Amino acid sequence: MSRANLNKDPDEVAAMFDGVAKRYDLVNDLLSLGRTKAWRRSTTAIIAPKAGMKILDLAAGTGSSSQPLAAAGADVIPADFSEGMLAAGRKARPHLPFTKADALNLPFKDGEFDLVTISFGLRNTNDFDLALREMLRVTKSGGRIVICEFSAPVWRPFRTIYTNYLMRALPFIARKTSSNPDAYVYLAESIRAWPNQVALAEHITKAGWLNVGWQNLTGGVVAVHSAVAP
Asked: In sequence order, what are the residues at sequence separation of 6 or more whose Cβ sits closer than 8 angstroms to the Cβ of residue 209?
């Protein structure tokens, strides 16, 4: 990609993530000022994985979000549509069953999972409303969805500082550390264009989920939304 593309052509987005796969986790830690691991721990706590729980981890990338779920005894399937990410994940965590999957057309049966989760990936789908409906389709009645995604800081002065960081500092860091800085320009622009906490909750409800709520992390830089399948 020559620059960030908010039209999100699936092939271009996949190719973009293929290009950053090898250093994805490291660069994300740098870009989030070290908060990525803390956010993933909080998300895992909200998921509350248990032995025998069947979990679909969408946009799993290299499997860093799937590993703690598997460690808790859950039957987790890390899924992604980027071949580069899947290859990096299989190399780093060969014990996990990495699966290629398109969030808009999941290759799973209706009601197959107790829980579906997606971290920092819903924003990258071509049609996130369709993705929310697909996740509902493959979730058992009474099962849950847990979405960890960048959001809107709740304190206005910090929101201004954060926006400046996204649009100035983040691309600068990416140019110094990443082989594909355009991917991180896309990241910054897509975060700024993404619905805030309330708006995303409305989309989740519209997709058919019940009892939608969220928890802000780092003052709303990230929000973890959860809901229940009817």
From this structure: 132, 136, 145, 227, 228, 229, 230
Backbone angles phi, psi at 209, to 5 degrees: -80, 155
- pLDDT, tens digit, 9 for 90 and up, residues 81-90: 989 889 989 9
Range of the domain at 202: 10-228
Task: Count the Cβ atoms, other than its own, within 10 Å of residue 12.
Answer: 14
Q: Which helix (H) or strand (E) holds 214?
A: strand 210-217
Which CA distances in Å does 138 have to 8, 58, 76? 24, 12, 14
Q: pTM (2 decimals)? A: 0.88
d(CA 110, CA 204) in angstroms, rounded, equals 18
The CATH code of the domain that includes 26 is 3.40.50.150
